[in-house]
Specification:
This protein is of the alpha+beta class. It has 27 helices and 15 strands. The strands form four sheets. It has a five-stranded antiparallel β-sheet with strand order 1-2-3-4-5. Strands 6-9-10-11 form a four-stranded antiparallel β-sheet, with helices on one face. A hairpin with a 4-residue loop joins β3 and β4. The two termini are 45 Å apart.
Length: 585
């Protein structure tokens, strides 16, 4: 945790009662030793969000979100760990060491943000130079005002191979740091670096707080690729960020909905014209990370992608995920060849707003699209329409809404002319589909062999602290084959070795990993199938050892086959002896 002493973090956590903190946001009701509520992270009618005062953790059995008091504030309030720590410290009356906090802020992440800011300033200055005249003219021809260009900090990357590299060097930033944030690439012969963005209009990408985390570049001619974005970096994760959300979020809250488009200009033009609740997915399929970004502001989504084939495909890919995450979804169909940017410039913002307001729901959109693709009068056409829309219906959780969709589908397909029969056939197919659908839990729905044994062993260690020391004597972290359980075991063993608590809340803080934190919370609250932790330790350890020997035997078998192919008689004999010795055990 940087320079903030772990002892202070532990003190803040110990003084922060998770029930008290969460009850300020949710109406918690007693449920045995725990408390329950409707989950704030997904829509539900039956409470599945549980808070354990004993273990100081929470877990939702519906969406698999879970963690400790820090995790809750980070998710619910969209805070960094440091911000959540400060908030809880203030509530607890604990003063954080200012000097140490300042040093942390001046750490590597801040230096990377400063580097991105310097790059944005440089690109902006290049847009105003003679070399940037063509780029500036392009932006003006696309209808962007000087105010919009400045507000979104648009710029231009010179055609030179190292103009940014040289500028950053003069300001004290070494090439390897530029490489880390994706601004330069290493030459093939390893002799140096060159600028990633050259001869392109630059669109800085901001996080929700307004800090620059990456860049996008567009060519001014017909060269390929037309658009280029920053790669995955310590600051930029394309599946967790939406373009323009930093400016759109206030408008989203005011309007009660978000409009999702694909590209930079598709977001810039509506914003300039007064449609401020627009964000762009930057050409990538919508991910759970994107939806987590939006969930804090709205549950209503209007998708306006390009009307070309690729745009329709992207729309369909995102629909089912939106349904699964319980967003209310509508889809705008634009005229052929149009995108949101061009449509607003040609038809105006009022017509754009009208289309958004009149947009059909996702079911009607997808059904109309499928009916236009396949012949609904043929048996094969009916089957293909039903087959492609059933996964969407299957993800709808509201039973009344789901039944209405089934009835509508049966009516539109005119199944045998008898609606009730059609509905029953569709329901039968839905049941088949549900049987083959995997659980959305952070834990796999089916685990076998050593993986299941590892899960139950970790669960027992989380539920009975006194077992951790004993387990540490009997096995090492390398004995855990599953990556998740190996990392949790590592946290447990290190905390135990340091004489610290191995309660679930402490483990979650140690791991600092959202997915693993949810897994820890789930395991700590879930019912253990073993009658005691000692029994679990004995039986799971046996199973882990057995599976480990199986893997070793398979490795020997492979090595023996390879030695036989090479004709290495001595190696074959040695390997067979070792194989037999292991088998005898």
């Amino acid at each position: 945790m940087g320079r903030i002493p772990e002892a202070i973090i532990e003190e803040v956590q110990n003084r922060s009662d998770i029930v008290e903190i969460i009850s300020a946001y949710l109406p918690l009701k007693p449920a045995g030793k725990n408390y329950k509520a409707l989950c704030p992270f997904h829509q539900e009618k039956t409470p599945s969000f549980m808070v354990s005062p004993e273990r100081q953790i929470y877990n939702c059995f519906g969406c698999a979100e879970g963690g400790n008091v820090f995790s809750f504030l980070m998710k619910h309030e969209q805070l960094t760990f440091l911000e959540a720590l400060k908030l809880l410290a203030d509530k607890s009356g604990i003063r954080l060491p200012a000097e140490d906090t300042d040093r942390r802020e001046e750490g590597k992440s801040l230096r990377l943000f400063k580097l991105n800011g310097l790059a944005a300033d440089f690109f902006q200055s290049c847009l105003e130079k003679k070399e940037g005249e063509k780029a500036l003219k392009y932006l003006r021809d696309r209808g962007l005002s000087g105010e919009t260009v400045r507000k979104f900090r648009l710029g231009y990357a010179l055609p030179s191979w190292d103009s940014l590299l040289q500028e950053a060097g003069r300001k004290g930033f070494p090439p390897n740091l530029l490489e880390e944030v994706g601004l330069v690439l290493r030459r093939r012969d390893k002799s140096g670096f060159y600028d990633r963005f050259r001869g392109r209009i630059i669109f800085p990408i901001f996080n929700v707080t307004g800090k620059i985390i990456g860049f996008g570049g567009r060519v001014l001619d017909d060269s390929s690729p037309k658009y280029m974005n920053s790669p995955e970096t310590p600051l930029y994760h394309k599946s967790d960020n939406l373009y323009a959300l930093n400016l759109a979020r206030e408008h989203i809250l005011k309007e009660g909905k978000v409009i999702i488009v694909e590209g930079y200009l598709d977001a810039l033009t509506p914003y300039q014209e007064g449609v401020g609740n627009v964000v762009a997915s930057l050409g990538t399929a919508l991910s759970r990370g994107h939806l987590r970004c939006l969930r804090r502001y709205t549950r209503e989504v209007v998708i306006v992608y390009d009307s070309d084939k690729a745009g329709v495909a992207a729309t369909l890919r995102g629909l089912d995920l939106l349904v699964e995450e319980e967003f209310r979804v509508r889809v705008v169909s634009l005229p052929p060849g149009e995108d949101p940017d061009g449509f607003i410039r040609e038809y105006g913002k009022e017509e754009f707003r009208r289309r958004v307001d009149k947009a059909p729901g996702l079911f009607d959109y997808k059904l109309d699209l499928l009916l236009s693709r396949y012949d609904p009068d043929s048996v094969e056409g009916k089957a293909r329409v039903a087959r492609e829309i059933l996964p969407t219906i299957a993800k709808v959780r509201d039973a009344i809404e789901k039944r209405a969709y089934i009835k509508e589908l049966a009516t539109r397909l005119n199944l045998r002319g008898r609606i009730t029969l059609g509905e029953e056939e569709i329901l039968a197919e839905l049941k088949k589909l549900r049987k083959g659908t995997k659980s959305s839990s952070s834990l796999p729905s089916r685990e076998e062999g050593a993986t299941l044994a590892e899960r139950y062993l970790i669960q027992s260690l989380l539920q009975e602290e006194e077992l951790v020391g004993e387990a540490k004597k009997l096995l090492a972290t390398k004995d855990f084959h599953d990556r998740r359980y190996r990392r949790i075991a590592e946290a447990l063993f290190k905390l135990e070795a340091a004489g610290k608590s191995t309660q679930a809340g402490e483990v979650i803080s140690y791991l600092q990993d959202e997915e693993l934190g949810a897994t820890v919370a789930r395991l700590a609250i879930d019912k253990n199938p073993y009658s005691s932790g000692a029994q679990a330790l004995t039986e799971c350890l046996k199973r882990i050892r057995k599976e480990e020997k199986k893997r070793s035997l398979k490795e020997f078998e492979e090595q023996i086959r390879e030695a036989q192919v090479r004709g290495e008689e001595q190696s074959i004999r040695n390997l067979q002896l070792r194989y037999q010795a292991l088998l005898n055990k």
